Every structure is written in structure tokens, then in C-alpha cells.
Amino acid sequence: MNRYPVWKYAIIVVALLVGFFYTLPNFFGEAPAVQVSSGKATIKVDTGTQRRVEDALKAAGIAPAGIIFDGNSIKIRLSTGDEQLKAKDAIQKALIPDPTDPPYVVALNLLSRSPSWLSAVGAAPMYLGLDLRGGVHFMLQVDMQAALTRKVESLSGDLRTALREKNVRHSGISRNNQAIEVQLRDAQTLAAAKAVIAEQFADLDITEAPLAGGEFTLTARIKPAAARAIQEQALKQNMVTLHNRINELGVAEPVIQQQGLDRIVVQLPGVQDTAKAKDILGRTATLEVRMVDESAEGRAAESGTGPVPFGSERFLERNSQPIIVKKQVILTGENLTDAQPGFDSQTQEAAVHLSLDAKGSRIFRDVTRESIGKRMAILLFEKGKGEVVTAPVIRSEIGGGRVQISGRMTTTEAHDTALLLRAGSLAAPMEIIEERTIGPSLGAENIAKGFDSVTWGFLVIVVFMCVYYMMFGVFSSVALGVNLLLLVAVLSMLQATLTLPGMAAMALALGMAIDSNVLINERVREELRNGASPQAAINAGYERAWGTIFDSNVTTLIAGVALLIFGSGPVRGFAVVHCIGILTSMFSAVFFSRGLVNFWYGRVKKLKGVSIGTVWRPDGGGNEVAPSARRSG
Amino acid sequence: MEFFKFRKDIPFMRHALVLNVVSIVTFVLAVFFLFHKGLHLSVEFTGGTVMEVGYAQPADVPKVRSVISGLGYTDVQVQNFGTAQDVIIRLPAQKGVSSAQQSETAFAALKASDPGATLRRQEFVGPQVGEELVTDGLKALAMVVVGIMIYLAIRFEWKFAVAAIVANLHDVVIILGFFAFFQWEFSLPVLAAVLAVLGYSVNESVVIFDRIRENFRRYRKMETVAIIDNAITSTISRTIITHGSTQIMVLSMLLFGGPTLYYFALALTIGICFGIYSSVFVGAAIAMWLGIKREDMVKPVTQKGVDPNDPNAGATV
After folding, report:
1. Nearest-neighbour CA in chain A from B97: distance (Å)
2. Which fold has domain B48-125?
3. Which string of DSSP letters, residue by residue, matches B47-93?
4. Model confidence pLDDT, tens digit, residues A85-140
5. Which of A467, A552, A574 lies nearest to residue B189, judging by beta carbons?
6. Among 3.40.50.720, 3.40.50.20, 3.30.70.260, 3.90.980.10, what is the CATH number of A30-113?
């Protein structure tokens, strides 16, 4: 009765092998590395970049231990920390000609030392949380109300234009919080206005209310579905902007994640200078629209033959061409509500569509009317340094706040320009609502403490189990070790982030997992006490204990899942390990340990006794260590 | 080796009344301290800034306190943390002041007074996050309680579900009472520990209830009290050994885990100790007071039309 079919042993062997291989990478430690990734949306890291890196390293006389290109970044593994610094300098010199405007991010990083065949099967070490490796964690709250208000503002401008185009006479459009109110004189215009909105503004819900004197108020609100879309877009745009800004910090593996509907978590491992990080995250780039100086002096200065005229400034276009721009600012980014890549409706050329708010549209109309045929420049200022994003020629008067920039542009360029124009500002203001900084030495201490807790607890339990339950204690201890192995393997497979509470959960999981084995061993002893034969006692012990083990694990799991659902930050890390620990313990403590017992005792035909420590009996017939003991069963 | 050699069943239930009075008194005391003193909630719940600053030499706590108070903070806490060289500083959240600057100005002032100071860890939590954590914590607690009750009610019987949950909430309240009485810091990991204890401690009740059910099936003529006594006696060695093993792990965390895990381990320790007591004396006793009967446990499917009180019930000739 205590035999496993071959397939059950096969499952055990496979589980052990998989567990072993996926746990393995955690033991190789980390090697110093340099990571090169793109610093701008317009620049891609590719094999060409890799060749430049290789050449730079060769020129500097550094032999890298390995170069890995993973599609987004190039990681150069080096043998010593000293070489790491040298390599970083050499690569920086080769790839970044102008340090104030880096096209690439060259950052120090740590790479797993595990051999490549392990990485090839997807076995990678667990990711260490900030509390174990040091770094900064921010949680930012996006002000969604502001994003909506801004959208309503721009929609009310659009509505004004649309009504005028259709010759619908209204006596005023105003924004009241997040609603647009249109005053209309009579029922006829009301119907006309409603038709315009229904036709052109799919995002708006309208309600009407009669006023005294036969007038009507039409109130338009953003539909809930559209509002959600706006919020999602605002969040995405803010994340893109944050990404661009963080690139500047030169962090190897920044984490920028959405949390909930309106929060963004930013984690910067290894960064210690919180002041700088906060400064960069909270920075606002500004966008300015100015006229290009096209006077004779201006043109002379542009071609480099004369001085920059008074009242103008010299900027570089993105293709490094100088351009002379007047100092007078026509519009700022505040008036720009949106920028999207698209196509010209007539020529099908790639284009960027800009939307301006009411004030911006008015100014823009006046300026364009007076300057047809002239060039205007859109400048992006970051860190007080300006760059001309684009400098199109004004073809006609532009009213209504809808601007299209087109001509000599590829779709990628249009996309990048739109991104740059948008990246100038955040879609909605953000506020830091949580911040955590952990020094690197504290991180290392935390690892050591977590490791010590697990090791000592584990050892003491193993010693106790072996002394108290003899051979069965050894089985239980091996099962406990397997539990730890599988737990680490599953966490590595999931690429879970290990934190200090996670390590605590690991220790606790082991402490609780032994519960199942104690239950089984006690049951087996009890069966022996009641006079069952050894084989029958083993069988009955496992069978009877199983129901109890299952029940108790389910209740523990309920607590774990509740923590997983409602917990955040450190509690989540705890909950993940706790839940997985319960699941692996069911496998190791019941299925695996039974396999061991069956393997050891199950083959013996006439088993005289089992080594499970003292089976004490109230009638005084207690016997000491079996199997040498003479028990008749 | 065998620690537990019982010749007869221990009459646990004989003392149930006295012990339940003791439980109620402890419980009431815990509730009293909870309301009277309140929990010393960590910055995660209240919002505010925590800084851990390390010094090369043992830190001069009063001096640190005076430097920070000099910045205009009224309710500042400065304590040693772990070692004599490290101090932990808690600043309350200030409305209107950007948190970001708060820690920077504070650290700059400390650095000015002692250049050897290093910022080991810094944490800021906005007030809105804190409020959310409190509600999320309560939601998690509610989900655990309801989830476990439903499971036990399906698996066993509603009386057991009520008994188990009362016994374990009693543990939770007592842990909280300890934290309130000693004004230990109640942080997120402690909350995790409390909920983990709730799930773990129910194990005890489950094991005992399982045995009670089994006994009801096996010993048809035994009194309910005797059945409970027997169930507890036959599981007590397992109860103490497993709790002992878990406690070994927790003790190891308490000793080696450092200050971050200290209160986490402490909450678990209290939970484990009271878990044994409550499942033996509180859970089983409540089930007894609620009047569990053989019929609750042994579903009379095969015994239709048979009077369960008939001494010959189930006997086939």
C-alpha cells in the first residue's frame, strides 16, 4: 500500500530538477556591467550601436567578459569594478559627444553571473527589491481633475468654432467646472446646436434647460467613457514624460509603473541623490512659439556670416542647423492642449496636428493673418536650454485653434515631433505622495539579516525534527528543504521582487510548512500506538492527516489572498511569498515526503517497525527507536 | 523522544468556564487599552516623514532632537534604532509643505551639526495614502474573517465557524492590545503578521474540530464534553510541536532580523502563544457552549428514520 507508481516518482524528479535549475541563478552572484540604452525617443539602440561600443572598448584596451544586446539595451559585462568605470568612461566618450544633450544613457549596472545556458532557458535570479539593494521609490498622484478641466477647456474652444462654422448663433459659451454651458436664444438654434454637437462631438453628453424669456441653456459634459479615455491618456503621457526625464539620471533599470487609476510608481535602484531625482521628476519643460527672424541681418547670422541681430537669439534645430529666432514669445506650452501625429487630409502627407485653447487660438489667428509666408519656430526649453523642435512656414491664416504642421516629414518624424511637443508638459500635474530612500549599506545589511533569520530558523527546526522523529524527522527536514528550493524556484520563475518582508514570509512559510509534517508524524505515531502495523500506520497517518492539512492550508491561504488583494508595497511582497509558500508546502510536505517514505519503507515486505522516535503507550509498553525494536504491530 | 505522555484524557472542558472568564477579562483589557491609549501607528498609516540617520559614533539623541526642533517641528520623535549609532526621526505630515523638502532640510541641518551623519533610509507618506492603508487593512481583515467563516461553515458547521472566528479574533484583539499597551509601533509588516496569525491560528481550531468530528463518528456513545477533551488531548502534542517549530522561525527573525522585522516577529510571537491557548480553551469551549451535537457533525444520510438518541442506533444485527 505504500508504493508510488513510477509516474509519481517521475513528477518528483522533474519538480526537483526544475526547482534546482531555476534556483541556481540566485547563487552565482552579480558581475559589474555597463548598460547602454536610448536616451531619446528618436534614437534606437541597434547592432550599429553595439559595434560602436565594441570599437570604443577596443580603443580603450578593455576586454569585456560579454556583450549582450536584448533589443532595447546593450549590456556589457566586465570582470572588475575598476574596469567597469573605465569602460563607462570610454563608451560615454564615444557615444555622447555633447554631455548636455545625451542621445544615450550609459549607466552602471549589475548583471547576473549565471552561465548563458541558464539564461537561455529563462532561468534568472530573483529581482531584489529596493529595501535590499538600495535606491529611491516614489509614488506620484496624477491630478485627473486638472486633466479633465484642461480637456473641457479645449473642447469649449472647438465647440465655439464649430458653431460659428455652421452659423449657429449663440449668446455665450462658458466653462463651468467640467461642463460647457451654451446660451441659446430660441428653440430653433437649440436644435441646430444639438445637431452640431451630436455630429461633431461624440465625447459630449448634452442636457438642456429652458431659461426665462424663451432662452435655453445647453449643458455639455464629457461622457464617462470618454473621461476614462482622457484619464488613461493623461497617465500614459505622464509616464512617457517621466521616462524621458529619468533617462537623464542614467539609471540602469528604472521601474515606471501605473498603480491603480491615477498613480504612478517610480523606482530608481541604486540612486542615492533624492534631491536631484525629485528635481528631475518634478521639472516642467516649457514650450514656446516665436517668429523666425527673417530680416537680412537674421539671414546673415543664420548662415554664420554676421552677428545675431539685437532682439533675436540663435538656437539649433534638431538637425543641428542654426536658426535665428526673435525673442518675443507669441505663445507658450500652456496654450497648447494637444499634439498628435496624423496625415494631411488633402495631400496625405505626414503631419502633426496641434490643438490650442481659446486664448491661444485667438492670438494664433492674429499672428498668422499678419505673417503669411513667414516662418515660425516652436521651441522646447528644458533645463533652461532651448531647442527648435520644428520651424514651419505659415501658409494661411489659421483660426479655430487647430494647427497642422506638414511638409517634408516622414511618419516617424511626425510621431516624434508630436511626442516632443507633448513631452514638453505633463498632461496633468503630479504630486509625490510617497517616497522612500534606502541606502546601499542598509540594503546589504537587510539581505544578511533576512538570510540569517531563514538559515538559523531552518537549522534549529531540522535538528529538532531529526532528534524528535528520527528517520521521519529526516524525511520531514528533506521535505522542508525541498519546499525552500521550490519556493525560491517559483519566485525566480515569476521574476518576483524579493523584499525584506518577502524574506520574512519565507521564514514564516517554512515555520508553518513543518506543521503538515508534524501532523503526519503525530498521526503515524498515534496509529502505531493504537496497534496498527507499521505499513498500515504510515498509510493511515498520511491519509488521515491530509484532510486536516488541506483545511488548515486553505484558511491560511484565505489570509494570504486577502493580503495580496488589499495589501500594497511591503505587504504585497509578503503576501506573494506567503501564498506561494503555502502551495509549495502542500507539494513538498505531503506528496514529496510520502514519496520519500514510500521509497524507504514501502519496498520492505515485512516491515517490523519504523523509525519515528518513541511511540509511547499508556499501558507502559513504550518502545524506543525502531526498526531494531521488537514490535509485533 | 516523546514529550507528551497522557494516560487519560485531560479534562480541559472542566475548567472552561474559569478560563473563558480569564479570556474575557484579557479581551476587555485589550479593548480598553486600544481605546484608551490607541495604537502607535507608523508613518505609513499616519502620513509624515521618517528618516534613519547613521553616525560614525554613538548618536547624541537629545542634540539631534534639538536640531530638528530648531527647524520648527513641534511633534518630533527621535529614538535610537537598532544600534547606538543609528537614530530614527519621525516628522509629522505638514499641510501645505512639500514633503520632499521636509526631509532634505532636516537632513541638511543634521549634517551641519555633525558632518559624519549619513542618511540610511528615508520614507515619506502622504496623508491620503495613510487613510487608504487603514481602510484597506480593515477590508483585508473583513475578507479574512468572512472567507474563513464561510469555508469553515461549508466544511464543518456554522457553530464551529463562529467558535473558530471568535477564538481567533480574540487573539487578534489581544495582539493589538499588547501593541497599544506597550505603545509598540504598528506598521504595515505588523498588520501582515496579524492577518497571517489569523489564518495560521485558525489551523489549530481546524485540527481540533477535525478531531472532534472524527470522534463523534467513532465513539458513538461518548458525551460531547468527553469527546472534546479527547480531541484536544490527542492533538495537544501536535499543537505544541508545530507552534514550537513556527516559533523557532519567528524567534530566529526576532534575534537576527534586525529592527525592521522586530515588531513583525513580536506580533507573531504573541499571536502564536495566544493561538494555542485560544484554540484549546476558547474555540472548543465556545463550540461547546453553542451546543454542538453529534447530529451537526455526522450527517444522518444513511440513518434515515433512526432516532439518534436510540442507544441501539446504527447497530445492525
Report:
1. 12
2. Alpha-Beta Plaits (3.30.70)
3. -EEEEEEE-SS---HHHHHHHHHTTT-SS-EEEEESEEEEEEEEEE-
4. 888 888 888 888 776 667 787 887 878 787 878 878 888 888 888 888 888 888 88
5. A574
6. 3.30.70.260
